[in-house]
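Data availability (excerpt). All sequences and predicted token strings are deposited with the supplementary files. A representative entry, Probable GTP-binding protein EngB, is shown inline so that the format can be inspected without opening the archive.
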Amino acid sequence: MQIHSAQFEISAPDLDSCPESDLPEFAFIGRSNVGKSSLINTLTNKHNLAMVSAKPGKTRLINFFRINQKWDLVDLPGYGYAKASGQTRNKFNVMVSDYLVKRDNLSCVFVLIDCRHEAQKLDLEFTAWLIEYQIPFVLVFTKTDKVKPTIVQKHIDYFKKAMSEFCDGLPRIYTCSAKTGTGRKEILQFIDQAVVN
Ligand code: GTP
Ligand code: MG
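Structure token line:
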């Protein structure tokens, strides 16, 4: 799929402030610093569209980007940001879970996982939560430029094995690097098919 246009639309602090829309939406979530905003920039080929930072906890609101005037990408705050206070963390959790559970035009959630690490409890718990709430999702292993392909594959296999303990089928899995553009084409192809259907 070609990206003809990509524009920032709005940042929302909660579900009620999200724009009304019938267009399909694709949301990006994962631990703080996993590369959500970077992947949005890579997919759209606009390197300053979503705000990126080496410091975790950069994205704090629900950010909407309109693509090709046909669908939206949604950049969400990361979970598991250790430095956030309990109160702030709770506010984020309510904001994000409300959005994920109640947003009618949400087509699919991209759950980003850092390919450099073995399956982490928080990521597994989050995928189990999505399954419980029947929210459609795919997994994207990020930052593949940082380690050897064999390590990436080992960590994907661990994650699949851990997931098979609590779910029957496995979700679709992608790998990506915001640095080299690996995975961009495949992810856009998936979105393209989802938008058409
Ligand atoms: P929060 O908004 O804080 O939750 O973070 P995020 O998940 O949006 O991560 P962000 O895109 O801001 O990236 C965090 C850091 O990782 C930045 O320094 C990025 O440059 C770096 N980064 C993201 N993706 C990649 C990648 O694929 N490869 C490499 N080498 N670095 C990456
Ligand atoms: Mg971000």
